[in-house]
């Protein structure tokens, strides 16, 4: 990045990745129980020790390829530059838990302030606070008595290792997302403090395209930067059209150079959770896809109008291939089908994020080892693979793209 003073720069899905944000799975994973899984958006409980080994192997792939890796937990701790900010952060964190009683709030604060290391305090916030850690017998309100069997004072945040979703780097700016679910919206507080107070960002002029307090939801897994002109956003289980409209006005009205936002209407179901669950870019003209999105799709193109704030919106029904050829101005594109078109392999590998690859350079991606049918096909299409172990991290229903947030990619 020598000679380049931009802190954040993402103008494609495939430009050489120079800096990426990860979160190493922590104790929050061990605070998952079967009865919490549904609300906390997990389908199984990963074995933490192995999940960490897999995640470390993921981080090593970046480092070996010249990508700087930074961790959410480190940046969040470093953002708490003085007592005033630490206090403010703790208060806001507690405000966003469902704790009602003032007495309990005081005890949580006291407990969090008792950590001498800021990183350990952050990790505790992420992991969740079990009842027995903070005055287990407090029954100062009716809710405490009624909910006395609930094991946590503050819930764990097991989805944090999917750093793709709470915020997204778009151009030189940040979409600080408002997440669909309460559990994931709590995660965005860490990003808020990082961009506001961390020494690397606090004095920078960073455009914010969205804010976590806005009322419509949008998640990073739905935000794909197809080129320096075209952004794709899924209208999905997690992202609402109202949010896309707002963000489009701001991005298209800025001087970042993006010309069109394509809103892809995808099925609202868990197997299609985000646009990147069913579709990722692996090279200039190659994409991995869930075979079910090959059928004609409804796509809305949003462009800037003549008047300030005006948007021109056009609805089209087209096959994905045609949409990509048209908007990326390509003569041809190759759609690489997850599971190589076999319905059983496709369904199995799709469930384990076979289409959720992360490009670290044009034509070079990180993939899960378990999706070997799709991986073979990618190789046959000339894609260079970096294969990571994937038994445990995959249980959270996200792949290499979901587990990473690029902060800086070289322009193509
Ligand atoms: N971009 C993504 O598809 N992220 C995966 C998120 C998985 C997580 N368990 C969730 O349901 O939000």
Automatic annotation (TrEMBL):
EC number(s) on file: 3.5.3.6
Gene3D superfamilies noted in UniProt: Arginine deiminase (1.10.3930.10), L-arginine/glycine Amidinotransferase, Chain A (3.75.10.10)
- The answer to whether keyword Cytoplasm applies is yes
Pathway named in the protein's UniProt entry: Amino-acid degradation; L-arginine degradation via ADI pathway; carbamoyl phosphate from L-arginine: step 1/2
GO CC annotation = cytoplasm
Name the keywords, alphabetized.
Arginine metabolism, Cytoplasm, Hydrolase
Q: What class of enzyme is it?
A: hydrolase
Molecular function terms in GO for this entry? arginine deiminase activity
Catalytically driven reaction(s): L-arginine + H2O = L-citrulline + NH4(+)
GO annotation (BP), single: L-arginine deiminase pathway
Does the keyword section mention Cytoplasm? yes
Q: Where in the cell is it found?
A: Cytoplasm
Q: What does UniProt list as catalytic? A: 402 (amidino-cysteine intermediate)
Q: Into which family does the record put it?
A: Belongs to the arginine deiminase family.
NCBIfam families, sorted: arcA, PRK01388.1
Instruction: State the protein's name.
Output: Arginine deiminase
Question: What species is this protein from?
Answer: Maledivibacter halophilus
Print the organism lineage.
Answer: Bacteria, Bacillati, Bacillota, Clostridia, Peptostreptococcales
